[in-house]
């Protein structure tokens, strides 16, 4: 792989006595769509919390384009081009669409009073409409509160915010978890749209059908360790689910005799 | 806008207009220019304190200390003027005390994680204690420096200067909230603090700002009240607690239902001022006003409970 856009090495996270993540290594190529899969409690959200700057790792290193970075906050990660779309979306439901898209990075314009800059609401409305259009989402009224939108449209608003940040890595934690079939379809389309714009996507999902539909590669976590790292092409949702469900003895056996050609050793 | 939307946005306003017209019919004195100016003058202190309370509430924090802090700031300013110090020093000292209470409230809430309902109730008690300590429980009344008194009693082109001050402050508060980045950050902090934090907004600093502005506006109101009365006592602003809360809650039923907003606060205070004045003019007993305030608070909360419960209980 050429210079990866994001590299994690030896990431470990302990919560008191619980080791939620153990020596996690990962290299993500620019423009790739990577799925992180695993059962409940496997450590998926822990990876995301570290990479998004929400929590520091107990040990290990994060490199962006080869440069080691440390995140003290989500704002730090954002400034490095990593935008995270959280499971609960992290939107302000009663605020307008354009205000959500520009939350924390509002467009300002000068006034005749020196030093006083005010919100450029018109510019924000138009730009927000533009970001949504890039996602092929049409909403007429940018002043509508987000709570009036459908689940898929809300995801679009959250992604539009990532576009606003000019993020080159977008992380999505269970983007379809709360959605019905039709809205899930829309979110899959949204992910295809951001892929098409060259943005690197890291997707966490329980839904193997979603993974197969959008991801180039899947990493499977179990008990805080990486047990698989495989290209998705040729896999079916069923075979992927089978890998997640395999029990520890089988995995250990695989490791010993290296029986599985695709087993977690790629990129080394 | 649907009809239900219109009712929820402008229903309170319509009711207010009806009350206004009712008083106009019931009392021949109500509509006179002199009486309308009296209402505006009386309402100005309430408005200034309520604008401050609104800043805190927009950040989803309750400031129950603003009235007692205003009394204390009034005592500080009034005391210094009363004992012959320059009015500049007196005003600066009063504002500083109020500002300090606001900052302390902010730090108690954000650093010690004490819910604002409790933190500001406690600092309200402290402010009240200090005001009684400073005055020995009496009020200072005197013939004070006329330039100081002018701040509360003067006129500019026939308009009471108090009305000018409160109009400027109301405009400033509206502008800060609806036209500046500070305003959206404060709003986002109150609406969805976790979302705001994840978007890089310094939410603790915003909450400190909300409570600090509440303190500062209490101080400004106190200075003007003291100047206007030419007196300062340990409980001179105490009554503004209930009417201020009622005004802001009433305001939350208007324009952007369920959300604290500056235009709502302005109209809320005007309605409460009209109500208080009109009740006196039509000869209603003195306790009628308290009962009316209680009903307004309950009625408003019934309409727009969520922001308030979040501010009070962090739900
Ligand atoms: N804040 C925390 N304190 C203690 N244990 C935690 C905390 N967060 C996660 N864990 C534990 O770490 C493990 C991995 O959790 P998580 O990353 O949330 O899993 P996933 O997202 O894959 O379901 C689980 O055993 C979970 O109980
Ligand atoms: Mg999770």
Task: Kindly describe this structure.
The complex is a heterodimer of chains A (268) and B (315). By secondary structure, chain A is α/β, with parallel strands linked by helices. Chain A is 33% helix and 26% strand. Chain A is built from 9 helices and 12 strands. Chain A has helices at 44-51, 74-79, 97-101, 121-134, 151-164, 181-196, 208-214, 237-245, 248-257; strands at residues 6-15, 18-28, 33-38, 59-64, 67-69, 82-85, 108-110, 117-119, 169-173, 200-204, 217-222, 225-231. In chain A, strand 9, helix 6 (181-196) and strand 10 (200-204) form a beta-alpha-beta unit. In chain A, helix 5 (151-164) packs parallel to helix 6 (181-196) and helix 7 (208-214) packs across helix 8 (237-245). Chain B starts with a helix and ends with a helix. Chain B is mainly alpha-helical. In chain B, strands 1-4 form a two-stranded antiparallel ribbon. In chain B, strands 2-3 form a two-stranded antiparallel sheet. Chain B has 14 helices and 4 strands. Chain A binds chain B through residues 54, 73-75, 78, 84, 86, 89-95, 99, 103-106, 108, 117-119, 161, and chain B through 179-181, 183-185, 187-188, 191-192, 194-201, 258-259. Bound molecules: adenosine-5'-diphosphate and magnesium ion. Residues 44-45 of chain A line the site of magnesium ion.
């Amino acid at each position: 792989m050429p210079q990866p856009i994001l590299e994690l090495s030896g990431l470990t996270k302990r919560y008191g006595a619980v080791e939620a993540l153990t020596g996690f290594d990962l290299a993500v190529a620019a423009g790739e769509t990577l799925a992180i899969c695993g059962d409940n409690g496997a450590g998926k959200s822990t990876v995301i919390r570290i990479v998004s700057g929400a929590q520091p790792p107990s040990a290990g290193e994060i490199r962006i384009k080869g440069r080691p970075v440390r995140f003290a906050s989500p704002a730090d990660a954002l400034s490095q081009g990593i935008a995270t779309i959280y499971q609960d979306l992290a939107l302000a439901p009663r605020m307008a669409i354009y205000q959500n898209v520009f939350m924390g990075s509002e467009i300002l314009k000068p006034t005749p009073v020196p030093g006083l800059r005010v919100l450029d609401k018109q510019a924000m409305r138009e730009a927000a409409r533009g970001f949504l259009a890039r996602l092929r989402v049409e909403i007429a009224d940018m002043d509508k509160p987000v709570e009036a939108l459908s689940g898929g449209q809300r995801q679009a608003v959250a992604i539009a915010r990532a576009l606003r940040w000019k993020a080159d890595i977008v992380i999505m934690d269970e983007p379809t978890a709360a959605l019905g079939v039709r809205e899930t379809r829309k979110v899959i389309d949204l992910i295809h749209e951001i892929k098409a714009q060259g943005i690197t996507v890291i997707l966490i999902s329980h839904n193997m059908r979603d993974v197969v539909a959008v991801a180039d590669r899947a990493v499977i976590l179990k008990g805080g360790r990486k047990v698989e790292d495989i290209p998705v092409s040729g896999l079916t949702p069923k075979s992927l689910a089978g890998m997640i469900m395999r029990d520890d003895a089988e995995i250990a056996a695989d490791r010993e005799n290296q029986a599985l050609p695709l087993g977690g050793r790629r990129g080394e | 806008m649907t009809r239900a939307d219109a009712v929820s946005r402008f229903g309170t306003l319509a009711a207010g207009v009806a009350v206004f017209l009712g008083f106009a019919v019931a009392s021949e004195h109500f509509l006179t220019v002199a009486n309308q100016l009296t209402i505006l003058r009386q309402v100005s202190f309430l408005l200034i304190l309520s604008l401050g309370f609104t800043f805190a509430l927009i950040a989803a924090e309750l400031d129950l200390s603003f009235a007692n802090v205003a009394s204390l700031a009034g005592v500080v300013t009034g005391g210094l003027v009363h004992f012959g110090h320059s009015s500049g020093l007196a005003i600066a000292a009063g504002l500083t005390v109020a500002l300090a209470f606001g900052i302390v409230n902010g730090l108690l809430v954000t650093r010690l994680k004490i819910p604002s309902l409790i933190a500001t109730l406690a600092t309200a008690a402290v402010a009240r204690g200090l005001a009684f300590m400073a005055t020995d429980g009496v009020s200072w009344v005197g013939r004070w420096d006329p330039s100081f008194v002018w701040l509360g009693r003067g006129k500019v082109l026939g308009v009471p200067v108090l009305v000018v001050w409160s109009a400027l402050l109301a405009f400033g508060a509206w502008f800060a909230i609806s036209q500046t980045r500070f305003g959206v950050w404060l709003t986002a902090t109150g609406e969805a603090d976790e979302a705001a934090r994840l978007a890089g907004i310094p939410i603790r600093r915003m909450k400190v700002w909300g409570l600090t502005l509440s303190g500062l506006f209490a101080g400004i109101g106190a200075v003007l009240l003291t100047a206007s009365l030419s007196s300062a006592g340990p409980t001179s602003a105490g009554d503004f607690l209930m009417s201020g809360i009622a005004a802001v809650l009433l305001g939350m039923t208007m324009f952007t239902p369920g959300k604290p907003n500056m235009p709502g606060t302005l109209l809320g205070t005007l309605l409460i001022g009209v109500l208080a004045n009109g009740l006196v003019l039509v000869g209603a007993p003195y306790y009628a006003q308290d009962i009316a305030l209680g009903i307004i608070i309950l009625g408003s909360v019934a309409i727009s409970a969520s922001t308030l419960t979040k501010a009070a209980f962090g739900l």
